[in-house]
Amino acid sequence: MKKLLLALIAVLGNALAFGAEGDTGTMAFQWSGYSDLAPTPKTYSLSDFHGKVILMNVFQYNCGGCDANAPKLGRMADSIGSGSSTVPFQGVGTEIDNGTYTQIQTSYVPQLKKNAPNINYPLVHVPFDTAIYTATNPSGTVWKRYNSYRDVYFVIDVNGKIVFRVAGNRSNLMPDSNFRNIRNAIAKALTAATTNILCLNSCSKNGLRAYRQGGNFHFNLGSTANGPASLQILDLQGRMIRTFSIPAGSNVVWNGAAGNVPFGTYFAKVTIGGASASQRINWTP
């Protein structure tokens, strides 16, 4: 029995080693109260983006590799739609060396915005607390909470799970394959986020995309769609709960709390021209 117990402890110890904080397959910590780097800081929490796919990069203001990768990173995030009301995706940068606003504005920000001047990509500080320590060179500052040095990139799905992680070389531009892998991981997570609800006409500019963000269900009709689209929220008995008319290029939001609708399963039915599609949706807390 003692040998069996020791063997079990060894197995569990190995399993836990493969599930270290910040590893692919683990949950992203819902950090909160982190200020951005603007002169009048805004407080952010990772939970602010609940229901969105998140690209989070860990950087230092004086990191050569971080600066080298920033132009491609900013362009990629902007092209996917970071901060968009019609795409459930958000990029956020996490600075782990406590760089000042001036230091980051004169080094990292110009590189991040080089190919995307109007990008929505908040930059936040990680507080210097017990979650961070400075290792011996060449490692430098380490964010223990995500088991991460500088120049590391995470993709977090809509459920808050880390689905992809890759590190740059912290000195120079990382390979194009790293950027492709980041984009592919985001695309895969976005596909899971949107197709879990509704996608009509291949989610093109002519169709409708639906996704959930927190307790809200968003329905977005393409700008060149043959709108308006008719949206009906039905209960399982087919009784009408709510109706919407969605003009082309517009977005509507349904939240059961607004109509005192009890938690449960419903149908979202959308009709565009002569095409219709319906999908079960779960209205839960």
Structure in words:
The chain has 285 residues and is of the alpha+beta class. The chain has 2 domains: 19-195, 3-Layer(aba) Sandwich (Glutaredoxin); 198-283, Immunoglobulin-like. It is 22% helix and 31% strand. It has 5 helices and 17 strands. The strands form 5 sheets. It has a 5-stranded mixed β-sheet with strand order 5-4-3-8-9, covered by helices on one side. A hairpin with a 5-residue loop joins strand 8 and strand 9. The termini are far apart.
Helicity range: 10-25%
- Strand composition percent: 25-35%
CATH class of the largest domain: Alpha Beta
Total E-strand runs: 17
CATH arch. level architecture of the largest domain: 3-Layer(aba) Sandwich
CATH overall fold name of the largest domain? Glutaredoxin
User: Helix count, per DSSP?
Assistant: 5
Structural class: alpha+beta
Structural features:
22% helix; alpha+beta; Glutaredoxin; 5-stranded mixed β-sheet; 5 helices; disordered N terminus; Immunoglobulin-like; 285 residues; 4-stranded antiparallel β-sheet; 2 domains
Record the SSE blueprint.
Layout: H1 2-17, E1 34-35, E2 43-44, E3 53-59, H2 64-80, E4 89-95, H3 101-106, H4 108-112, E5 123-125, E6 132-134, E7 141-143, E8 152-156, E9 162-167, H5 176-195, E10 198-200, E11 208-213, E12 216-221, E13 229-234, E14 240-246, E15 251-254, E16 264-272, E17 275-283
Parallel strand pairs: 3-4, 4-5
Antiparallel strand pairs: 1-2, 3-8, 6-7, 8-9, 10-11, 11-12, 12-15, 13-14, 13-16, 16-17
